[in-house]
Amino acid sequence: MNKIEVCFSPELIHLHELRGKIVVVVDIFRATSTMVAALAHGVREILPFADLEACRKMQDKGFLIGGERNGLTAPGFEMGNSPVAYLQGNYSGRKLAMTTTNGTQAIEKSRGAQEILIGSFPNLQATVTYIQKKEKDVLIHCAGWKGRFNLEDSLYAGALVKSLESTHYADEDGALAMKSLFEKEGHDLKSYLSQASHAKRLQNHGIESDIDFCLTLDLYELVVKVDGRGFLVGVK
Amino acid sequence: MNKIEVCFSPELIHLHELRGKIVVVVDIFRATSTMVAALAHGVREILPFADLEACRKMQDKGFLIGGERNGLTAPGFEMGNSPVAYLQGNYSGRKLAMTTTNGTQAIEKSRGAQEILIGSFPNLQATVTYIQKKEKDVLIHCAGWKGRFNLEDSLYAGALVKSLESTHYADEDGALAMKSLFEKEGHDLKSYLSQASHAKRLQNHGIESDIDFCLTLDLYELVVKVDGRGFLVGVK
């Protein structure tokens, strides 16, 4: 058996060993869900940026640019952080440069891992299958909200711990707690997460369809990983 | 209704507003349980120290000194961090200076709150009753383990959120999650927490009776608070 653990915030990631592990970065509402949607619907590759201005400059290099801060499209950006915007395949073949409040920062802070995957409910089972072929310890890195614990990333962590229980032993308090939480609340994610602070934030922005998408299980067989150049790419 | 929130680590406390709130510091295994036990059994007052050497020097001023690092009594200290050591009342009337790996650091980082309470299962209901008279927002500050989330402090947080639900609204993701976790696992704390990493650490040190004590509900009607001088004192 391999081990599995959960880090609830990029501000705590320095307390976890990354080396030799598969790190699954998750920002359910909405960065990692959007990344998976974009790549599943034809975007060729995604270059994540923690910094807004560095991301903006990629437009000159032919990239589509996606930028979000505090749940809203950053000024001057073509795309915000909505997964639904990619579902028609309108950006097929494009390269995307993307920066978000929490998710892209968490990717940056995961460097040093053996492998970095991008987690979402729409490709949960694909990610599980991929990990189970690798025989590596797993660390789930929740992006949280501005450094704080959040409910949706934590529930995804619980879902992943539960899905991997035949191969990965939850010998760590965060993983144990989130597995229990998912067992109790995972049967109706949407209803439970309607209480979550970021779901409320998004509802205020009128993006119910994004929330529906982000909580839909197993739409895609695609796994998303960070490649040697730092790009996010889809692997089938 | 007032609000209630949970901070899972002293390393995240800077993300929470302390002002105007009652902060309940909790380090179930074992610092805050030991503090409550000591005061319930006659210790006059406790001065907490984050620093080991500063604590040690209090012996010259007539204090009983308690010091723990990594679960073991610190070299040269009279007392470790065992609540059971106080149950016979052998230290009645003494002043205690105390430093522990996680708990005393969390107290120090809670400065700035309207009021700081010390939480434990043996005085949970007393703490609930006290808080409900105050009509203030509550922040539960989990000491964790070396900055990381831990199961026992989190479950106490869930128990407190649940116990306060008639007066304090869990409008925050950490509080919501821990309430759910306690609802699922709170019926048999000892069995569930036997999986927790720090319980295993303590079992290795042969202190089963400490674990039993720390998970016993409502032995005392005492509330423990930090007074204006920074001492912990019992309030009935």
Architecture overview:
With 236 residues, chain A is α/β, with parallel strands linked by helices. Chain A has one domain (2-235): putative 2-phosphosulfolactate phosphatase. Helix content of chain A is 32%, strand content 20%. In chain A, strands 9-1-8-2-7-10-11 form a seven-stranded mixed sheet. A four-stranded mixed sheet of chain A has the order 3-6-4-5. In chain A, a hairpin with a 2-residue loop joins strand 4 and strand 5 (72-73). The longest helix of chain A has 13 residues, at 151-163. In chain A, 57% of the residues are buried. The A-B interface holds A 6, 8-9, 11-12, 15, 145-151, 154, 171-174, 176-177, 180-181, 183-185, 192, 195-198 and B 6, 8-9, 11-12, 15, 145-151, 154, 171-174, 176-177, 180-181, 183-185, 192, 195-198.
Gist of the model:
With 236 residues, chain A is an alpha/beta fold. In chain A, 32% of the residues lie in helices and 20% in strands. Chain A has one domain (2-235): putative 2-phosphosulfolactate phosphatase (Alpha-Beta Complex), CATH 3.90.1560.
Q: SSE string of chain A, helix = H, strand = E?
A: EEHEHEEEHEHEHEHHHHEE
Spatial strand sequence of the major β-sheet of chain A: 9-1-8-2-7-10-11
Number of helices of chain A: 9
Strand content of chain A: 15-25%
Low-pLDDT windows of residues of chain A: none
Largest interface: A-B, 30 and 30 residues
Helix content of chain A: 25-40%
Described by strand count, sense and barrel closure, the largest sheet of chain A is:
7 strands, mixed
Kindly report the CATH topology of chain A: putative 2-phosphosulfolactate phosphatase
Radius of gyration of chain A: 16 Å
Instruction: Indicate the overall shape of chain A.
Output: globular
CATH architecture of chain A: Alpha-Beta Complex
Number of strands of chain A: 11
Output mean pLDDT of chain A.
95
Number of domains of chain A: 1
What is the CATH superfamily of chain A? ComB-like
CATH class of chain A: Alpha Beta
Structural class of chain A: alpha/beta
Distance between termini of chain A?
25 Å
Multimeric state: homodimer
